[in-house]
């Protein structure tokens, strides 16, 4: 198969995935996550149920299509830190960039999506799994970057503290969004909270994993 054919195949897959995701999101917003079936999503997207499950093995995957970007953000920030920059500074900078961009991965997905997650035990459980995975992913990155064993206490401790801050800030953002806060006002408030929270960790972890 030529490169052009491969490119067309990948484009077709991307278009099919986007089509399914778009219709699923619309149905979830209109009726609530738990009230929509895979069959209804397939019918709306004009594909088979098998096609839907091939792209999204679990229904909750349709609501969390960007879960990898959410979960791997702090680990990727640590791996991409600049010379002279430590893990805390790298994660703080990456998070504040998300807030400045009103990134949905930082909680700025809008009140409809936030309410959909809050009203669905399945989605709320999946979100907790993402937070837990993010901590483990960050601990692994810290261990790799500092040359320590994967089960060493220090990278796990630092990851737990950083992830706790990120989790609290995410929850606070969602709370403010659900209360009807305008995005710019929410971002301004969360930026102040983030600076306070990360500064509290600075004495203990500011010099940790500084890239030489």
From TrEMBL:
DNA-binding region: 37-56
Domain of life: Bacteria
GO molecular function, one term: transcription cis-regulatory region binding
Keywords: DNA-binding, Transcription, Transcription regulation
Source organism of this protein record: Saccharomonospora cyanea NA-134
PANTHER family membership: HTH-TYPE TRANSCRIPTIONAL REGULATOR BETI, HTH-TYPE TRANSCRIPTIONAL REGULATOR RUTR
InterPro entries named in the record: Homeodomain-like_sf, HTH-type_TetR-like_transc_reg, HTH_TetR
Ranges of residues in domain HTH tetR-type: 14-74
Pfam families in the cross-refs: TetR_N
Protein name: Transcriptional regulator
